[in-house]
Every structure is written in C-alpha cells, then in structure tokens.
C-alpha cells in the first residue's frame, strides 16, 4: 500500500465550538466539508494519518518530523484547556521517512524537537477525524524555509516510506490560505491575498500541482499565505499518480482563506511528475536569463564562478563600457536561488577604482561572505540569479515624506551605526517599513535620534 487519499484542510481554532462559541456558524460550509472528509477517512480506515502542519517545529533549513511514541495537546492557548488530544505516532514510518529523506539529500528528520505538544494545525484535523475513526497512528511533519521543490521531494519520500512499509495511509495537508483578504483581518488587506486564493483554489480544483510549485515566493509573502508548503508536500506524495480532485469548499469571512479539498488516487500517470516538469522549465528560464543579461550582471556571474571554480579573482575584462571602467560608485550584488535570497553584499560608497572592480569584489563577497548564509557551493552556481544595483549619490532628507519606496533607497545613521535598504524591494510597500528595516539593520532603536539620506539606484538583472 501507500498514500491512498490526501486532503487539504484549514485550521481556524474557532471552528471548534468550545472556542468559536457561535462564530463557527460563519464558516458552516467549511465545517460541512470537514465532516465529509473526516467521514471519508473513517470509511477508508487507514493505518496511518500523515499530517503536514505549519505550526509544528519550524526551521529555516530542516523539515522536522515529530519523534517519540506519541504526544498530547490541548487548546489552552485559545482559552479551552479541557479540549485535549492524545495521539500515538507511527514510529517505524517516521524513522523510515527520515532515512529516505537523508538518502535523497533532503534536510529532514526527527532531530531538534523543542516543543513536544501537539499544535493546533494538527489537533483541528484530528478533532474532526476522531468523530468517525480513532484506530490510527500519526506521523506529524512540519514545513520549513527550504524551497518549494525540496518540500515536494520530501512528499515523495513520504509516499515511498509508506509503500516500503506496506502502510495504508492518508495525508492531511493542514494550512490556511491568505491572511490578507480584508482590512479588518489579522494582517490587514493586500491585493495579492484574493489573487493568491483564487489561483491556489483553482489549482486544487483541477489537480494542477505544477501551479503550486510555480508560485513566486515574494508574491506569497505579500499574500500572507500559511499553508502552501504543507500543500506542496502533499503534492509530492502524489507524484506520478492520477487523482480525482474535488474542491469541497472555500470561505474567508474573517479575512483568512479556508479551503477544503480532496484528492483520490485512481491510478498511475507518468505525465504527473511535476518536479521533473518544474526543473525543466526552471532550466529554460535560467538559460534565457543568462543569454540576455547585461555586462554588469555578466561580470558579477563570471567573478563568483571563477573564484569558486578556480580559486581565482578574474582580471577586469577589456571590453567593458567606459562607465564601468571610469566611474566609481557603491554597488550591491544580490543572489537568489529557487526564489529565495542566497546572498547580498554591497558598499554604500565606492571602495575601489571603478564600478567594475566594485562588482568583482562584491559578487565574490555576496557568494562567500554573507554571514546569513553558508558559502555558495560549485553545485549551486548554475541555479543562481544575479542582480546588480549601482548606487547614486546620497542626499540628506529631513522627513520620511521625502521617501518613495519604489524610487529611493534609504540610509539611516546614528554615529558609527549605519543601515541601508535598497529601493523597489518586494514586500516593502511604505516608507515607514523601509526606515524600520534600515534601523533594525543598523542596530538603532526607533526611539533614538537618527539621520536619514536617500539615494537612487540603477538595477541590472
């Protein structure tokens, strides 16, 4: 056996009557759909329920699988300590999953548990399942800051582990959608919120798992999504399988999107290996970028690749434009991989004899010396996307009203403390956000006095 059925569910605590105290009536379609899938699980009688949740132990670079024989939990965080749960873990399947993930080079396993108790992203699905069926064990998996593709690969490991152990298993992907659907919602309104929910529910309805992998990470951040990586793990568990897809409900009255969907495995389908399709399209996209990058970006790429592959700092090419050779400026070089920042180092003002020298220096530093990341390896070079920002001269400003996040970057300073933020960054929508982040980078408290400067950049991508 293996994964025979999967489900996508939300986890609003108020769906529990003791917590909602009548408010749950506003998401009656969600409750109806939840009962429908819980009854379906009761009919299937699985040996194991795998639950992926955004609210278990979460690491930036590691997918956590809950260890041990079992765990307990309750809703005391939401004022109801008497609504409690106790579940038994499928230890053998969790261990097998950890081994398979390690064999595939996926950072995942049972290490580093900081909090043993069950989270609400796990307990809410179990609340409904337990109405109809209780003779099961659980494997609880977190999400992480790893790429969408790595979460998909982890899902494939879940399916393989269940198959090798002959488990009859279902997978529940626990996760809300956008948290930014309404001004009075938990995180206010963002235009990306409703768009995200329309696109992701359409993908659920059509079983289009490639669409999950294709979401832009900055767009998802702006939308305030919660459960996409949880859903992508589910998609990976169905890799190569034909499925019958049903979007059973969608509601968002509280400013958060709640979707319930079901996917019944009906056979094999060699056209549904979405990781392969995604990888091919990504290779084509990256090749197109490389073929069309300008001399600034090309120099940054050549500089880092030469240093990593040959331990050699390249000489300044002779065919560069006069601006790159004769002018000086501060330069920031940014690296992205799989939609996520992989390194960024820059200089506020020129520290070398030319823009070209500044690019060479900062490209190497962005790849190897950004303290937030491990050094870029040779295996990663082909997947990197580069951008190069050439900074114009800065000018003092007296008011935040003189800033425009799309046009100007900002420098804040207090004595030797200085913080810089570039303009036109995804997710930075107001000057207040821009200044607050710059202050944090500088180590300056908002209550301290500080000076501000603004500057323009020319961005090369």
Summed up:
The chain is built from 14 helices and 17 strands. Helix content is 36%, strand content 24%.
Keywords:
461 residues, alpha+beta, Protocatechuate 4,5-dioxygenase, Chain B, Glycoprotein, Type 4 Pilin, Dna Ligase, domain 1, 17 strands, globular, AMMECR1_domain, ferrous iron binding, oxidoreductase activity, acting on single donors with incorporation of molecular oxygen, incorporation of two atoms of oxygen, AMMECR1_N, Xdiol_dOase_suB
Question: How would you characterize the overall build of this protein?
Answer:
- It holds the Pfam family AMMECR1.
- InterPro entries: AMMECR1, AMMECR1_dom_sf, AMMECR1_domain, AMMECR1_N, AmmeMemoSam_A, Xdiol_dOase_suB.
- GO terms for molecular function: ferrous iron binding; oxidoreductase activity, acting on single donors with incorporation of molecular oxygen, incorporation of two atoms of oxygen.
- The protein is α+β, with helices and mostly antiparallel strands and 461 residues long.
- 36% of the residues lie in helices and 24% in strands.
- It is built from 14 helices and 17 strands.
- Strands 11, 12, 13, 14, 15, 16 and 17 form a 7-stranded antiparallel β-sheet that branches. A 6-stranded mixed β-sheet has the order 7-2-8-1-10-9, sandwiched between helices. Strands 3-6 form a two-stranded parallel sheet.
- Strand 15 and strand 16 form a beta hairpin.
- Helix 3 packs across helix 5.
- It is globular, with a radius of gyration of 25 Å.
- 43% of the residues are buried.
């Amino acid at each position: 056996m293996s994964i025979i059925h999967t489900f996508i569910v939300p986890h609003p605590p108020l769906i529990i009557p003791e917590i909602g105290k009548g408010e749950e009536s506003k998401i009656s379609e969600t409750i109806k759909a939840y009962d429908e899938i819980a009854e379906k699980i009761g009919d299937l009688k699985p040996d194991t329920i795998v639950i992926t949740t955004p609210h278990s132990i979460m690491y930036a670079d590691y997918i956590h699988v809950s260890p041990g024989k079992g765990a307990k939990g309750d809703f005391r965080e939401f004022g109801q300590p008497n609504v409690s749960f106790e579940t038994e873990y499928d230890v053998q399947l969790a261990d097998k999953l950890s081994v398979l993930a390690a064999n595939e080079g996926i950072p995942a396993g049972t290490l580093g548990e900081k909090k043993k108790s069950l989270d609400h992203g796990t307990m809410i699905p179990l609340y409904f399942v337990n109405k109809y069926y209780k003779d099961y064990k659980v494997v609880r998996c977190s999400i992480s800051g790893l790429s969408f593709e790595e979460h998909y690969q982890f899902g494939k490991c879940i399916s393989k582990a269940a198959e090798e152990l002959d488990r009859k298993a279902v997978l529940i992907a626990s996760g809300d959608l956008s948290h930014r659907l309404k001004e009075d919602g938990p995180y206010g309104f963002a235009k990306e919120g409703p768009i995200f929910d329309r696109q992701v529910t359409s993908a659920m309805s059509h079983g289009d798992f490639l669409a999950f992998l294709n979401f832009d990470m900055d767009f998802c951040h702006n939308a305030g999504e919660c459960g996409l990586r949880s859903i992508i793990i589910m998609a990976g568990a169905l890799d190569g399988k034909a499925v019958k897809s049903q979007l059973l409900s969608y509601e968002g009255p509280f400013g958060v999107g709640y979707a319930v969907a079901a996917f019944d495995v009906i056979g094999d389908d060699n056209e549904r290996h979405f990781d392969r399709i995604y990888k091919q399209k990504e290779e084509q996209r990256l090749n197109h970028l490389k073929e069309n990058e300008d001399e600034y970006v090309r120099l940054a790429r050549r500089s880092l690749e030469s240093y990593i592959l040959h331990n050699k700092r390249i000489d300044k090419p002779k065919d560069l434009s006069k601006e790159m050779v004769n002018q000086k400026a501060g330069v920031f070089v940014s690296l992205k991989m799989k939609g996520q920042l992989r390194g960024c180092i820059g200089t506020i003002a020129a520290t070398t004899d030319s823009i070209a020298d500044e690019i060479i220096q900062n490209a190497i530093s962005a790849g190897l010396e950004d303290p937030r990341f491990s050094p870029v390896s040779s295996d990663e070079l082909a997947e990197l996307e580069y951008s190069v920002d050439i900074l114009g001269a800065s000018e003092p400003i007296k008011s935040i009203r003189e800033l425009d996040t799309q046009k100007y970057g900002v420098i804040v300073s207090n004595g030797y403390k200085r913080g810089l933020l570039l303009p036109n960054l995804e997710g930075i929508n107001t000057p207040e956000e821009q200044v607050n982040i710059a202050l944090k980078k500088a180590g300056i408290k908002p209550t301290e006095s500080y000076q501000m400067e603004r500057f323009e950049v020319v961005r090369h991508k």
